[in-house]
Specification:
This protein is α+β, with helices and mostly antiparallel strands. The chain has two domains: 188 residues, Bira Bifunctional Protein, Domain 2 (BirA Bifunctional Protein, domain 2); 46 residues, SH3 type barrels. Helices cover 21% and strands 36% of the residues. The strands form two sheets. The protein has an eight-stranded mixed beta sheet with strand order 1-2-3-4-8-7-6-5. The chain has a five-stranded antiparallel beta sheet with strand order 12-11-10-9-13.
Length: 247
């Protein structure tokens, strides 16, 4: 069956809205920059390393297409900029415990509320997929998520309308894309480093090795900084299979 999208123009964006998709990232892969896709549900959403992402009714499931122009501005680290947009939006709603988790998650306290997946399908543009739990209940499909996932409805007295959150994020993402295009990703590093929610002990899985130490934030390229033997050591996202916070 052919997917039918409702398309409209909004503040420089072309917005595609679909009731159900396999993956918004897959739908967006051939679209030009400044297009955004929203699905009410997804049945084949994925995270890093192909992990499944539950996407039932009531969440914000979107993918945006951004130009990689100029090409040398540190775009591989843009998921952290997208996370900054989400955290800033959530804190604006009163969620003071909203924080980043390197390299592509947003949490409220210890629980995940948003995941981000950036994929490059063409040389001149990138697709940034974002899944935010709003009124949906991730644990309904998988009870094991009860202890590790949350939603806006679970954290606020009244969850704001999904359309309002969508628009706020599109505005924030466009602003942050402009900053990276003009000044490079390094210009965001200090802002991002203020949103980790404090220093935490973490465990990194890299190939056949497990490394533990205090997470210190990111460097100007977006690489993780871990304190090992009293010295900061950097690790890039493609080489880290898993980062786990050690409680």
């Amino acid at each position: 069956m052919e997917t039918v999208a409702r398309i409209r123009e909004w503040r420089g964006w072309t917005l595609h809205e679909v009731d159900a998709l396999g993956s918004t990232n897959d739908y967006a892969r051939d679209l030009p920059p400044w297009h955004a896709v929203r699905a009410h549900t997804q049945n084949a959403a994925r995270g890093r390393h192909g992990r499944h992402w539950s996407s039932d009714e009531g969440g914000l499931w979107i993918s945006i297409v951004l130009p990689l122009d100029p090409p040398d501005r540190g775009w591989p680290a843009f998921p952290l900029a997208a996370g900054l947009a989400v955290v800033s939006t959530l804190r604006g709603l009163g969620l003071s415990e909203a924080r980043l988790r390197w390299p592509n998650d947003v949490l409220v306290g210890p629980k995940k509320i948003c995941g981000i997946l950036m994929e490059k399908f063409a040389a001149d543009r990138v697709v940034v997929g974002l899944g935010l739990n709003v009124t949906n209940n991730p644990a309904a499909a998988d009870p094991e998520l009860e202890a590790i996932a949350t939603s806006l409805a679970g954290e606020l007295p009244i969850a704001p309308p999904i359309d309002d959150i969508y628009e706020e994020l599109l505005i924030a993402l466009r602003i942050l894309h402009g900053r990276v295009a003009e000044e490079g990703f390094a210009s965001l590093a200090d802002d991002i480093n203020r949103h980790w929610g404090g220093t935490r002990q973490v465990e990194l899985h890299i190939a056949n090795e497990v490394i533990r130490g205090p997470f210190l934030g990111i460097d100007s390229r977006g690489d993780l900084l871990l304190q090992v033997d009293g010295h900061p050591v950097s690790h890039s996202a493609p080489h880290v299979q898993l980062m786990r916070e050690v409680l």
